[in-house]
Amino acid sequence: MDNKETIEELQAALAELESGEGLSRFVEGHGLQSRFFAFSWNSEGLSIDFDLPYARVLADDEDQAVDSARVGAALRMAILLLTVAAEGKFLLEGEAALSVAADEDGARYAIFDQNGAEIDAGDGWDALVARLDAALPDGDDVQIIWP
To answer: What is the chain written as a DSSP string?
Structure first.
C-alpha cells in the first residue's frame, strides 16, 4: 500500500472508531483480553510502530474508553505523520529519520541524523504535535485536533 492509500485506510479506521460501532481495521489478536490495534510503517525517513490494547472485554468501561482514546490518538498521529512526510515538511536540516512508537507503556519518539545518531527523543507526543503544527502552513487541508 502506498502513502495515500494508507492514509485513507487510517482515516476509515478513525471513522469506524469514532462511530462507536467498533474498530475492525488494524485490529489483531483474539480472545477477550488479547486484541490490539497494530499499525506499522517503514519508509525512508519515517518509522511508525503502534501496538495498543483494544476492545478488552474484561476491562471496565473506563479502561476501555482510555484504550479507545489512545487508539484514536495513534490513528491521528499516523495520519499526520504520513501527510507531513509525504510533503517533505517534517524533518529539518541535519535530520534524516523519525521513529514514533506507542504501546501499553506509553508513546515515544526519536529523531536521528544521517549517521543514525539520536538528535532528539522523548516520551509522549506533545513535542511532535507542536512540530507538526509548525510544519503545516496556514490554510493546509490538515487540521490538528489532539485529545
So the answer is: --HHHHHHHHHHHHHHHHHTS---TTEE--TTT--EEEEEEEETTEEEEEEEE---TTS-HHHHHHHHHHHHHHHHHHHHHHHHHHTT-SPPTT--EEEEEEETTEEEEEEE-TTS-EEEEEESSHHHHHHHHHHSPTT-S------
